[in-house]
Structures are given as structure tokens and as C-alpha cells.
Design a protein that fits this description.
The protein has 338 residues and is α+β, with helices and mostly antiparallel strands. It has 12 helices and 15 strands. The chain folds into 2 domains: 200 residues, Trna Endonuclease, Chain: A, domain 1 (3-Layer(aba) Sandwich); 120 residues, Arc Repressor Mutant, subunit A (Orthogonal Bundle), CATH 1.10.10. A 6-stranded mixed beta sheet has the order 3-4-5-8-10-11, with helices on both faces. Strands 13-15-14 form a 3-stranded antiparallel beta sheet. Helix 7 packs across helix 12, helix 8 packs across helix 10 and helix 9 packs across helix 10.
Amino acid sequence: MATEIKTWQIIDNKLTQVTTSLTENNRKEREHLEVWIKSNPEILGSDIAIIGEQIQTKSGPLDFLGIDENGNIVIIELKRDKLAREVLAQAIDYASDAATWDINKLNEICENFLNQSLIDYFTAKFPLKQIEELTINQTQRLILVGFAVEEPLSRMIEWLSNNYNLGINAIVLNYVTTSSGDELLSRTVIIPEEVEREKSNKRKFVIEMSNEPGNYSIEILKGLFKNYLLKPNVSRKRIRDFFLPTLLDKKLVTRLQMRREFVKLNGSADESQAGYYLSLISVQLGLKKNDFLRQIINYDFPNNGWEKDNFTIKEEYIELVEEVINELTIQSTLQKLD
């Protein structure tokens, strides 16, 4: 039996069935449904954050790409009408391509969509997760979204979930307009969320962390450092505009002092927010691939084994940092004049 939701409105103490649709109200999938979902992705699940839309795969554009709190990639396919069995093959096709995407590819998608790195966004959305334990694309979840589900598709989803532990679900939406003109969107799911979520807890790609510094020549180091600061990323901008200038001015800066300097320089509204920004910067310093940053910036762990503190620019690289910041400032000024 096909799954759908029906709604009744209580008018003058009587039930009146509301039978409206997106099409009848000139609402479209791309212009309206996708915008609504982006405004509050929780309708897809409480543990899902959207990191991209209309992502090109080998088989066509994927409506939404999401990530859950365990680092699983979520394939989200929308239909403004009934979900047919063919939608499942389409989603599996997309997932087979997305399964090959590494962290750099996913980070690029996230930066293009949100103008911030995947790590920054993930940390903001799921603050209780330890970044050092984060796994990315450990497996892929499939979420099909429509306004009814044909019986064969419902049966296939339950079979794949029960027999093959595939993280798959269908979300059935119901759109209505009331007599007063209010628009309502409700939903139900084929598989209970906690059951579908549990299917996806395996490991694949791990974001590697390290405290080991790089060992680059000055010329290569300067190139890596400058290119890093040039990329449009919120944490990198804070490093360039607030973190590094503070280190150049104060030499050795504690975590507490850095938080106060961020507020003083209008880099944050208060010290609590500055502490959050500093945590994101600490993550950037700890990424294994960013060993060139650790070649330039020193820190230790005086209080906790996980909390970086006592930041300094190594004396032999102070001139290099000043040169790079000056060059970036000049470049930014010239771009504004153009």
C-alpha cells in the first residue's frame, strides 16, 4: 500500500479534509521546496546538515548533499510528487559516485555552498563531537523526499534496511494551505529515524591530526602559507586578520589573552564567541596536512592534553609572516580599487 499523509482542518467544530498540492498552489520543487528545506534542514532529520546543493555527479545533479553527526554523507533526492521505485535506483547511482569522494572534494563542495570549510561547519553544527575523532564519508545514507511513496518503493526500502543494514529512508511530506491562507508542511518517515541512523556507523576516511611541524625551505613555506591564507575560509580570515597580527604584536599570547584581543580588535562580540573561534583556529593548526602552519607557529598544552595554549610565531619566521600579511593587504587593496 502506498504511503501518504492526509490532513483535516477543524472548522466550526467540524473536520474538513484539506486537499491541496504544490502544483495547485504554483509551488515548484526548485524554487520553493528546496528553499524551504534549506531554511530548516531538521525536517530531513535532527542529525543532518546540508553542505551542498545541485552537486554534479557522474549521472547528473544531486539535489542536496548532507552530512550527519557521525560524518556520514547523506544523499538527498527530492520529488514534488509521489516517490516511485525508479527514484531508488537514481539515489543509489548518486551514492556510488559520492562514495569515492575524499575529504578534499567534500570540503570543496562545502566551501562553494557555505563559504566555510567542512570542519568549521561541522564543528558549528555538532559542537559536542570531538573533531579528533571525526570520520568523513564512512558510509552513505540515502534519503528520498516526496509527497507519497508507492508501495513497491516502500517495500524495497524496508527490505534493504532490514536485510542489508543500508541507511535508507523515505520522508513523506504533506503540504496544505489552510482556509486562512497559512501554508503547512508536515512529514512522516518509512523507517524510524533512530533505526535508520544506526545503520550507518562504520569508519572510512579519518581526518588526521598532528602536532609535528613541517620542514620546508623558506621559499616553499612562504608559498604554502600565502596560498593557505588566500583561500576564502572564515577561520583562515580570522587567522590572517586577528590571530597573526596579535602574535606579531604580543610575541607570546595565552589562550585567555587571545580571546581578549579578538574582542578588542572587533573580531568577536564577546570572549565566549572568541573562545569558539579560537577552537576552530586550533583545529586548523592541528590538521596533519597543515604542518607548514606548525613550522611557523608554536604552541604547547600547559593545562589539558587537548587544548592548545601559549601561541608564538617562531623567531626565524617573524619576517616571513610580516611579508605575507603585507603582500595580502596590498593585494586586497588593489582588488578593491579595481
